[in-house]
Design a protein that fits this description.
The chain is α/β, with parallel strands linked by helices. The protein has 7 helices and 15 strands. The chain has a single domain (28-289), classed as Ribonuclease Z/Hydroxyacylglutathione hydrolase-like (Metallo-beta-lactamase, Chain A). Strand 12 (225-229), helix 6 (242-252) and strand 13 (256-260) form a beta-alpha-beta unit. The protein binds zinc ion (2 copies). One zinc ion binds at residues 43, 68, 108, 110-111, 208, 261. One zinc ion binds at residues 47-48, 51, 53, 55-56, 264.
């Protein structure tokens, strides 16, 4: 299922491959999760450099959005989704002390540029850290970060190990022999670029998506908390608009949905008031508890 020898090129799985074996039963033993939205903004971040619009100059802290990333605690395990350019500040803000693995959604700057800031997580624990990624994402990471992922890594480089995935996998502890966490990649379409969403237990994180392939919905059955891309009210070629995101959230049917990846066209208080109670905007630092499967 995973290999480190991914050739460049489109070797990606079909959605059906991704869904195979992704029945909710796989998550039966997953403990309750604590999910922290480290960043909730679009690729520029909000405020946007040089912009003096109402949102960029707002004194509501909810209108400050760093680039999207997410930290999941499952028992002792700590799982990071993406390492954007704000990762270091986010990790300091949330006091993150442990990372067992990184799940990459895709290769764009706003989701990977903080990769090198993983280095301190090896100072006290030299065990390698798996970085799970779609084959296309892995190919770009390998090319762009040759000094980390190449055959002759720079001394002191993060001891990260690319794991190309085409189906469900489990994340093991880097620290002890504690229980592993089952994770399902969920194939998404980001305006033609393949992106992985991730499901663990009753939580799913789906960022940077403009279309969900039909079979991927099957991997999202029984979700309690959903995090979903919702760029802005106006339609966009590579992200869900608010209307599209609301319709998608309704179809997936989570108890609670949080939107992420918003632009400076979105004022938090105003936009939230216009959304239903079970679909709200996330904000940086929002922490949510997700119940275990047995409570479904
Ligand atoms: Zn993005
Ligand atoms: Zn602005």
């Amino acid at each position: 299922m995973s290999t480190n020898n991914t050739p460049d090129g489109r070797t990606g799985p079909t959605a059906a491959d991704v869904v195979a074996g992704a029945a909710p039963a796989r998550h039966a033993d997953t403990p309750p999760l604590t999910v922290t939205l480290l960043g909730t903004g679009t690729s520029t971040g909000v405020p946007v450099l040089g912009c003096d619009c109402d949102v960029c100059t707002s004194d509501d802290p909810h209108d400050t959005r760093t680039r999207c990333a997410c930290y999941v605690r499952a028992g002792d395990l700590g799982l990071l989704i993406d390492t954007g350019p704000d990762f270091r500040q986010q990790a300091l803000r949330e006091g993150i002390e442990r990372i067992d693995a990184v799940c990459y959604t895709h290769h764009h700057f706003d989701h990977v540029a903080g990769l090198d800031d993983l280095r301190p997580f090896f100072f006290d624990n030299p065990a390698t850290m798996p970085c799970y990624a779609h084959p296309d994402t892995a190919a770009v990471l390998r090319r762009n970060y040759d000094y980390i992922f190449g055959g002759d890594p720079y001394p002191g480089a993060a001891r990260v190990q690319l794991e190309t995935i085409d189906g469900p996998f489990t994340v093991a502890s880097r620290y002890d022999d504690g229980p592993a966490l089952p994770v399902d990649p969920v194939l998404l379409d980001h305006g033609g670029t393949p992106v992985y969403g991730y499901r663990m237990g009753r939580f799913a994180y789906l960022t940077d998506v403009s279309r969900i392939p039909e079979p991927s919905y099957e991997a999202l059955e029984g979700i309690d908390v959903l995090v979903l891309d919702a760029l802005r009210p106006k339609p966009h070629r590579t992200h869900f608009s608010f209307d599209e995101a609301v319709a998608t959230a309704r179809r997936i049917g989570a108890r609670q949905t949080y939107f992420v990846h918003m632009t400076h066209n979105v004022r938090h208080a105003e936009a939230n008031a216009a959304l239903p109670d079970d679909i709200q905007l996330a904000y940086d630092g929002l922490t949510v508890e997700v119940p275990a499967m047995e409570n479904a």
